Amino acid sequence: MNVLLDNLSRYGEGLLGTVELTVYASLLALFLGFVTAACRVAPVRSLRAFGTVWVTVLRNTPLTLLFFAVLLGLPRFGLVLPFQLFAVLALGCYTSAFICEAVRSGINTVPVGQGEAARSLGMTFPQTLGDVVLPQAFRTVIPPIGSTLIALAKNSAIAGSFSVVELLGTYRTLSELGYSIIWTFIWIAVGYLIVTLSISALFHVLEKRWGVAR
């Protein structure tokens, strides 16, 4: 317990950093994921092509490489931002590709007749998608989206290697101070467990309220 009690502020700062990264990157991933999923099923070929390229590139790119591309590449184009914001961009964009595929799979579970009926009533594609298809698809994609955001929370550990304050990064300071590495990592693991179980509990509530009965 001494490792935790002596460094409670450090652990607290790291946990807060991980929570902030997870929340902001999750919001970005959800927004981009739903937009990209809409592009993937859009009747416009160029939008479908954009969605396909986005998902294919990001899903097949190592997250660490994406961090290097964002943190080292964007400043070369004059875009200078805080490291935490760069980390949010990398995590959010990477995770959005997996959110997109989860949402698209949910859209595919909605009977085709639903969309055809909406179009026969004169509804546009955005209206059909937003008012008819997505509300039904959302019920089936709650569990995979929850799992994806849990993975995002764990992936945020990579940000610590790029000067971003987060939970895993606290081990360097504690190691330099001579604390036990084993107990240092045990309390770090407990912190990640708190974050992931919180996300799991949230999506369990959402699934229980809106999910499809199985």
Blueprint (SSEs and pairs):
Elements: H1 2-6, H2 8-40, H3 45-59, H4 63-73, H5 83-108, H6 112-120, H7 125-155, H8 170-176, H9 181-210
Helix pairs in contact: 2-3, 2-5, 2-7, 2-9, 3-5, 4-5, 5-7, 6-7, 7-9, 8-9
Protein name: Amino acid ABC transporter permease
Subcellular location: Cell membrane
Organism: Streptomyces celluloflavus
Concise overview:
This protein has helices spanning about 1-5, 10-40, 45-60, 65-75, 85-110, 110-120, 125-155, 170-175, 180-210.
Task: Write a structural description.
This protein is mainly alpha-helical and 214 residues long. It is 78% helix and 0% strand. The protein has nine helices and no strands. It has helices at residues 2-6, 8-40, 45-59, 63-73, 83-108, 112-120, 125-155, 170-176, 181-210. The longest helix has 33 residues, at 8-40. The protein is elongated and about 70 Å long.
Shape, per Cα inertia axes: elongated
| Number of helices, where a helix is a run of at least 4 consecutive DSSP H or I residues | 9
The fraction of residues assigned to DSSP E strands is under 5%
Topology order in helix (H) and strand (E) letters: HHHHHHHHH
Largest sheet: none
Number of strands: 0
| Main structural class | mainly alpha
> What number is the mean pLDDT?
85
- The percent range for helix content is over 70%
- The end-to-end distance, rounded to whole angstroms, is 43 Å
